[in-house]
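User: Run a structure prediction on this.
Assistant: Running it now.
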Amino acid sequence: MEKTVVELFAGVGGFRCGFNHVTFDGKEVTEENNWNFVWANQWEPSTKTQAAFDCYVERFGESENHVCEDIGKIDKTTIPNHTVLVGGFPCQDYSVARSLSNEKGIEGKKGVLWWEIVEVLEAKQPPFVLLENVDRLLRSPSTQRGRDFGIMLRSFFDNGYAVEWRVINAAEYGFPQKRRRVFIFAYHKSTNYFKKMKKYSPKQLVYSDGIFASNFPIKDLKLEKGNTNISKEEFEDIVYISDGFDFHFFNAGCMIGGKINTYKVEPVDCKNITTLGDVLEKDEVDEKYFLLDEKLEKWTYLKGSKRIERTKPNGETYYFSEGQLSFPDKLDIPARTMLTSESTTNRSSHVVKDYVSSNLRTLTPIEAERIQMFPDNWTNIESKAMTERRRYFMMGNALVVGVVEKLGDYLKEIVDNEN
């Protein structure tokens, strides 16, 4: 079995950087070539420019298989065959309903990008799938907890896959950012890996023998757990899941044969942490990043505690409260979760004490890249679309490269064993 990958919602190439241990010296990109990325798609519908795709192409080269087109308009049968499908897809509403004529069976209402993934599963049947999303996916929507993830699991089940998932906080495993994301690993019933994993109990998969336990170990604690079934015996089709499925998913679990087992787990204690201070630039940085007196006053207010009276549309008053944040950010712990608004004047942006001058400043684009474990200046490209503001935005949207690097290395062993 070849080590080939298709990358959906590729962004600036986080999965590829991790899988291939990519390095960049400012001029040339070096890949270890453990994996052959045979096709990649990146398309941002809300902007006229395509900064992320421009970055992907500048770093990995132009190719007819680097596609900047709406994934919904692509015939999935034209995508090359591949061993692993990867992607960090947006979290949306995955509710489904029957078409008026019922001729098309089931169609999505809002979570259109998930259904594009399903179309790839149907058309190409990749042996393995690795996806990343925000952790709230497990409990959305608020009116029917767990429905969206249940729809996803049923989609995998209908296409012949078993699934493992885990919410991973990167900082708890030695990486430089407190970033919680759910990772979803699916493997097809035709694989040797499926036959092997089917012999284990759900608890063994989650606590010791699955892909996540093998790379991100957890404590053997008896915490909360739950189980349910989404097979056809319980729900005739995916519309019934959408209408009636309600379940509390914990931060780890598995689904084999339609049977779901979920567990609340805790990570083992991490001995080697990477701190925000570890990733800061040690040389002088441009003065534009520093907070002058006027800016400093505003930042102090934003980071401080406050209780503000507000008025509802119906005229009723209420109080909005915020607690105080560390100001500046502590350098002896990992960075907070980086958002797409990083570096703008807002409460969530990091403010640090500069190593050289000891004055307060915002992060540089290089530091933002380091927090996500990309090579320095990865997003510093010639494209006019990639402004400095967009560089921060790209990193706020990205994943922690080190997490997928570990998973990619382990997947390499899994694929080798298929042979």
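Residues 4-269+400-418 form a domain with the Rossmann fold fold (CATH 3.40.50.150).
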